[in-house]
């Protein structure tokens, strides 16, 4: 990887990926949304292109020739219309594929274990597990991302690798921010006992897998890799650790059968009234947290040499420190504001 292009570079995973690519000495061009702030940690070392992932063809000259493309841009939500997800996630993937074909670049696309859809909760899942039927726009779009990528491999010789990460967590992730909000407001955040594997992958472990996918020889023929931290951390263990680290109330639980019944009802009501925000329980949320799925990353370990290095204890310590820093910054800002008023 010499000249690398990253879509979704300003997002949660994208920021960590760009930092790792810089560490490895790559020349990075990042696609940023209009008005999206450039992380100060990049220190001016990243060339940025502002634009819409659905219109990459119009920015080919600005992007320039690249040898590797990491495609992360997508709608990341278990809510929203199918049209919105297809328009941004799927059409954006098609545009990124055209760019990869133009430069004969390796194309590494990040989808999600949500692509397993109704197969979630059926025990051990790996790349050979048949995908199930999607219940959400997010699941459908992630399946379509994989399908258009594999079609380009077959029909146009695209050099592609598909990374299917488990539940990605770390400072700033939805699995931290959303649960932090639920815990603080004493909302139910566990479905049932939560005594089943959480299927987590820390963002830095995922980034390591992504860079391995960008450099490992002999795998760019459409290979799919499930990426997880391995087994052994349940949802209850994770939420207990999170609540203790942030000095928040212990996680409350909603009966599992009730979550399963309420999810489709809440989705129906939400769509009926055109709610912009997802209801507290959705079918995808139930599939990801209310049933056990064992995400087997042994293929990535065997073919990529992937080994997760960041454990839960280290991740929780980082989350604790980041949240403590937020409190200090908020306090400082408040004091500065009061000082200005006094003057």
Primary descriptors:
343 residues; alpha/beta; Rossmann fold; seven-stranded parallel beta sheet; two-stranded parallel ribbon; 11 helices
Could you give the topology of this structure?
Elements (H helix, E strand, L loop, with lengths): L2 E5 L4 H12 L3 E6 L14 E4 L9 H4 L4 E4 L10 H22 L2 E5 L12 E3 L11 H20 L3 E6 L1 E3 L4 H11 L3 E4 L8 E3 H13 L5 E7 L7 H11 L6 E3 L1 H17 L10 H7 L3 E3 L2 H6 L8 H31 L1
Parallel strand pairs: 1-2, 1-4, 2-3, 4-5, 5-7, 6-13, 7-11, 8-10, 9-12
Folded structure, characterized:
- This protein is of the alpha/beta class and 343 residues long.
- The chain has a domain of 222 residues: NAD(P)-binding Rossmann-like Domain (Rossmann fold), CATH 3.40.50.
- 45% of the residues lie in helices and 16% in strands.
- It is built from eleven helices and 13 strands.
- β1, α1 and β2 form a beta-alpha-beta unit.
- α1 packs across α6, α3 runs parallel beside α4 and α7 runs parallel beside α11.
- It is globular.
What does this entry show, briefly?
The chain has 343 residues and is α/β, with parallel strands linked by helices. It is built from eleven helices and 13 strands.
């Amino acid at each position: 990887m010499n000249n690398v292009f990253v879509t979704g570079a300003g997002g949660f995973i994208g920021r960590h990926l760009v930092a790792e690519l810089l560490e490895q000495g790559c020349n990075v061009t990042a696609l940023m949304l209009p008005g999206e702030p450039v992380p100060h940690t990049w220190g001016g070392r990243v060339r940025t292109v502002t634009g819409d992932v659905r219109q990459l063809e119009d920015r080919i000259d600005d992007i320039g020739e690249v040898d590797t493309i990491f495609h992360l841009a997508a709608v990341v939500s278990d809510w929203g219309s199918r049209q919105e997800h297809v328009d941004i996630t799927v059409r954006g993937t098609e545009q990124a594929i055209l760019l990869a074909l133009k430069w004969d670049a390796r194309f590494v696309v990040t989808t999600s274990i949500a692509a397993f859809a109704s197969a979630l909760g059926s025990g051990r899942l790996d790349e050979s597990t048949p995908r199930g039927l999607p219940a959400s726009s997010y699941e459908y779009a992630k399946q379509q991302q994989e399908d258009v990528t594999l079609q380009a491999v077959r029909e146009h010789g695209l050099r592609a690798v598909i990374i299917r990460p488990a539940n990605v967590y770390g400072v700033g992730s939805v699995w931290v921010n959303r649960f932090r909000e639920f815990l603080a407001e004493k909302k139910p955040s566990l479905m049932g006992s939560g005594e089943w594997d959480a299927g987590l992958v820390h963002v830095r472990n995922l980034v390591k897998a992504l860079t391995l996918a960008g450099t490992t020889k002999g795998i760019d023929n459409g290979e799919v890799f499930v990426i997880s931290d391995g087994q052994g951390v349940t949802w209850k263990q994770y939420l207990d650790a999170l609540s203790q680290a942030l000095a928040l109330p212990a996680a409350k639980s909603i009966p599992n059968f009730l979550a399963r019944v309420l999810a489709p009802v809440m989705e129906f009501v939400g769509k009926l009234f055109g709610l912009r925000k997802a209801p507290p329980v959705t079918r995808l949320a139930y599939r990801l947290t209310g049933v056990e799925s064992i995400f087997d990353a042994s293929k990535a370990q065997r073919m990529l040499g992937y080994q997760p290095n960041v454990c839960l204890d280290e991740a929780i310590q980082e989350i604790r420190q980041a949240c403590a820093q937020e409190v200090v910054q908020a306090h400082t800002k408040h004091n500065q504001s009061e000082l200005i008023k006094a003057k």
